[in-house]
Amino acid sequence: MKIAIASDHGGYELKEKIKEHFANWEWEDLGTYSTGSVDYPDYGFKLAKAIEQKKYEKGIIICGTGIGISIAANRCKNVRAALCHNAYTAEMARRHNDANVLALGGRVLDPKTAFEIVEIFFRTPFDGGRHERRVQKLSSESCR
Ligand code: RB5
Predict the structure, then answer these.
(1) Which of 32, 38, 65 to mutate to test the pocket of ligand 1 (most atoms within 8 A of CB)?
(2) Residue of the nearest CA to atom 6 in ligand 1?
(3) Is the omega angle on the peptide bond into residue 89 within 30 degrees of 0, that is, cis?
(4) The whole model's pTM is what?
(5) From first to last of its 144 residues, what are the pLDDT tens digits of the chain?
(6) 3-state secondary structure of 107
(7) Which of the chain's termini has less CB crowding within 10 Å, N or C?
(8) How many whole angstroms from its chain centre is CA 2?
(9) Is the CB of 64 under 6 A from ligand 1?
(10) Domains delineated in the chain
(11) How far apart are the first and last CA of the chain?
């Protein structure tokens, strides 16, 4: 499975470290490609639109805190971006929320914790069952 990854300047260094650490995984890097200042919504939307269009099944987005870029990504249809801080939140994001985008804070996490989160997120399946109904209710139409 090819994994899409994107960040703003606040997440750039962690993005590069993740690609290097998981060098045998297949990555599609949607930018940014330097530490020059950019706007996180542009990269959150870029990756989320690609997920919405089913170009990729899952992705990773990173900004300084992970907050802004996850707010942006969650505006796109069928995107469930989860901001994870540790192994537990990464596991629950998959098991209970069927999250398809992992959001990380490049200025919050040490690389070792970030690698652990990535590993767990991508190897954990969705539990289904009662969570299926709840995930269905997350669609933007349910908010009306
Ligand atoms: C950029 O300085 C910073 O605001 C951004 O990376 C992110 O943390 C926003 O939520």
Answers:
(1) 65
(2) 64
(3) no
(4) 0.97
(5) 999 999 999 999 999 999 999 999 999 999 999 999 999 999 999 999 999 999 999 999 999 999 999 999 999 999 999 999 999 999 999 999 999 999 999 999 999 999 999 999 999 999 999 999 999 999 867 777
(6) coil
(7) C
(8) 14
(9) yes
(10) 2-139 (3.40.1400.10)
(11) 35
